[in-house]
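User: I'm writing a short report section on ligand binding and want a predicted complex to refer to. Could you take this sequence and zinc ion and write out the structure as tokens? A short remark afterwards would be nice.
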Amino acid sequence: MGYEIEAQFLGGAEEIGSLGLYLRLGELRLLFEYGLTPSKPPAYPAPAPPVDSVFLTHVHLDHSGMLPRLTTEYDVNVYATLPTIAVLPLLLNDTIKVADLEGFPIPYQKEEIENLMDNMIPIDYGKSIELGSIEVVPHNAGHIPGSAMYEIKNEKSILFTGDIQTVNTHLVWGSKPVKTDILIMESTYAGREHPKRDEVEKEFLEKIDEVVGRGGKAIIPAFAVGRTQEVMLILAKSDHEIWVDGMGRFVTNFFLQYPQYLKSGKKLKKARNKMNIVKRRSDRRKALKGEVIVATSGMLEGGPVLHYINHLKNDPKSAILLTGYQVEGTNGRLLMDRGILELYGIKEKIDTEVSFFDFSAHAGHSELIDFAERCSPEKIVLMHGDNREALAKELKERDFDVIMPKNEERFFL
Ligand SMILES: [Zn+2]
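Assistant: Sure. The structure tokens for the complex follow:
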């Protein structure tokens, strides 16, 4: 006689942010992710009920950002891969720093981050974790180095994708479908397709040649975790003088410690060694004399990238090349839509050229449909998207049973 699986999203079901999924399988209570939305002010998921084990798919804050609060409350194991565990304290400590800087309530103390790190248990792709009669198997999610999907082997099998990318990037191999009864899938790019990656890359490198050729500098804002390294790998083909600044420098070094989670550790190391790394403040002056600068943050919400833009904002020969989706309400979005940027508290018109290149680490609409079909589930739960209907419609047309739970709504699988 089987039992029902009880489920509830504590956040992140209907939006991209603050993800947390509570699952009860008989007596066993599991939590997948416990993130925050790094908006101003940050947004948090609902409080978590008592749980027995926690699974983290990857290090991004919308998946991990509230874990220190959780392990303060419950002394439980949190499973993640080694690259995730290595980079996690960097992002969590930065969350405290940003909250302090912006004057928002600080969600946890440094000691709570240390406490979380004591509870982290390393896992690896393909190696199952036994929890009583249930087995959980991590698989490559293709999103960033160390990103995992979790397959729960139960009477009914469940696959929780976290964030997935199915195409190969320079940094990591794409994820492969896993046969499952219930598929719990992200839907960030529901209704949206990506342009062909090799074409975007070509345009990106050509744009840099054009900017440098006319005597300008190319400033490339990039997220620290994943995007900075992908951009470095693309730029490795270029012969310009390139500088890298921001948190992405440290993340690159962490990733290089776990080359088994990279498509090619050798290539990333070579790319890093080819570029100039900003090591001290005085290097920033040198970087401004160079040709290309890669720096955090990706949505221009802070970080050294603003320092560089502040120096070049009146130079129409220079260009800002955005490399990731700019969320509504962020400084990067303001720049894209209106050519205005908030620099050190003042909103200013920017004279530099602005262009956008889609180097997304998420599967696009068609790739998600294809992935779902090849997992051949009887039921699909869509999460982590603000336009899930677009995906649901097409999946229903293909005879899948699709549900789109709301945050905090209890549902059964
Ligand atoms: Zn992510």
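A remark for your report: The domain at 197-356 is CATH 3.40.50.10890 (Rossmann fold). The chain has two domains: 5-192+361-412, 197-356.
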